[in-house]
Write a structure and sequence with these properties.
Aminopeptidase i, Domain 2, 438 residues, 20 strands, 6-stranded antiparallel sheet, Aminopeptidase, globular, 25% helix, 27% strand, alpha/beta, 9 helices
Length: 438
């Protein structure tokens, strides 16, 4: 029989396999929420929220907000909120992508986010995302597709043709990374939209597609998530940043006891700055909070003042081969606990009040806690935490699971950390006390 941790990681691996794009991630989360009794709301309709009710909504098909109205403590008493993001660095197909060189059919791609490009070479790649199309009755529709099979690769240049490759090889994203899909016959021309037309008919035989209009598609690594290491210490997968946190927050929400009011937000576009209708800099969360609070401006002010957000986004584990890239007192180790992220310049939104509450809850669960501060002579990344704190005015904590190879096509985390984080988030959702220090 599997332990709770093994079962959690098995579910995480399954989620990562199905959530190949932000659209597919939200689709999977919607299925799990519906199975857990959450009701879908539409933003353009009126809401009738009930104490004890469980609800969710989506925006753009790539962002999601799920929340529960506490049966004992309503939203005016404060929301226990968890935030994550659905997107990951990747290669997205350009609008007119067809390329033919030396008889090979390739697709032009654009780098999305701060991708670590070297690991994309010599991988088995597939393609997934959203396609818009016109039906035969002239109706506009969209559908998700996922080729699943390895349909492309980006071959490396042999070292014989670049003897300095191991010393100094830079990547030109315009020239060096267009994936190779197949070989072409003489005179044959590639038609990517026709390829998508056929894929739509294959995955959605009743879609009645007349013409493919446009798409948002990205390449991804087909290698499945796996438990690796001599003693099974690690989980290796694409998109751990930040689908691991989406799964962890969702898992904790499904174990909500119904007493206090809770919320999970998973935003798209974090990797490119969050400024979009579906991103954390957009109006999604604020709009939902105002509708939960009602028309009374004082009620909304009370809600935000009494609430707290835990922004969950992976942290940098100290690499055994590059330990000097960390502050000597702040090098998080995999499987030694989730990491509180702190930055004096507010690149992370943690403060002594929010970190104190997290440490208290973690101690109650017997979960170890680590902290991360970037080296003072290095630039610091950021998360949706400061964006949410600054936009909504809610006290916020930045937390994350320590990870190797962040923004690589295949990242590495510890098998204990995500499960431990889920236990603390569950306790946070079920916490009956005040979210502010007295």
């Amino acid at each position: 029989m599997m332990s709770d941790q093994q079962q959690f990681n098995s579910q995480l691996c399954g989620f990562l396999a199905r959530a190949t794009t932000p659209f597919h991630a939200v689709t999977e989360m919607v299925k799990q929420l519906q199975d857990a009794g959450f009701l879908q709301l539409m933003e353009d309709e009126s809401w009738q929220l009930q104490a004890g009710g469980r609800y969710f909504l989506t925006r753009n098909g790539s962002s999601l907000v799920a929340f529960g109205i506490g049966a004992e403590a309503g939203p005016a008493e404060g929301l226990r909120m968890v935030g994550a993001h659905t997107d990951s660095p990747c290669l997205m197909v350009k609008p007119t992508p067809e390329k033919t060189s030396q008889g090979y059919f390739q697709l032009g791609v654009e780098v999305y986010g701060g991708a670590l490009l070297n690991p994309w070479f010599d991988r088995d790649l597939s393609l997934a995302g959203r396609v818009s199309f016109q039906c035969k009755n002239a109706e506009l529709r969209t559908a998700l597709i996922d080729f699943r099979d390895a349909i492309a690769t980006i071959p490396s240049l042999a070292i014989h043709l670049d003897r300095e490759a191991n010393k100094n090889r830079s990547i030109n994203p315009q020239k060096d990374i267009p994936p190779v899909l197949c070989q072409m016959s003489e005179g044959e021309k590639g038609n990517f939209r026709e390829l998508l037309h056929q894929r739509l008919l294959h995955e959605h035989p009743d879609c009645d597609v007349e013409q493919v209009l446009d798409y948002e598609l990205c390449f991804y690594d087909t290698q499945a998530a796996a438990i690796v290491g001599l003693r099974g210490d690690f989980i290796a997968s694409a998109r751990l940043d930040n689908l691991l946190s989406c799964h962890t927050g969702l898992h904790a929400l499904q174990e909500w006891d119904g007493a206090a009011s809770v919320l999970l937000v998973c935003n798209d576009h974090e990797e490119v700055g969050s400024l979009s209708a579906a991103g954390a800099q957009g109006p999604l969360l604020e709009s939902v909070l105002k509708r939960i609070a009602g028309d009374d401006q004082a009620a909304y002010a009370a809600l935000t003042e009494r609430s707290m957000m835990i922004s969950a986004d992976n942290a940098h584990g100290i690499h055994p081969n590059y330990a000097d890239r960390h502050d000597e007192n702040h090098g998080p180790v995999l499987n030694k606990g989730p990491v509180i992220k702190i930055n004096a310049n507010q690149r992370y939104a943690s403060n002594a009040e929010t970190t104190g509450l997290y440490r208290m809850l973690a101690a109650q669960e017997g979960v170890p806690v680590q902290s991360f501060v970037v080296r003072t002579d290095m630039a610091c990344g950021s998360t949706i935490g400061p964006i949410t704190a600054g936009g909504v005015g809610v006290r916020t904590l930045d937390i994350g699971v320590p990870t190797f190879g962040m923004h690589s096509i295949r990242e590495l985390a510890g098998t204990a950390d995500a499960h431990n984080l889920s236990k603390v988030l569950r306790r946070f959702y079920n916490y009956r006390g005040s979210l502010s220090a007295r």
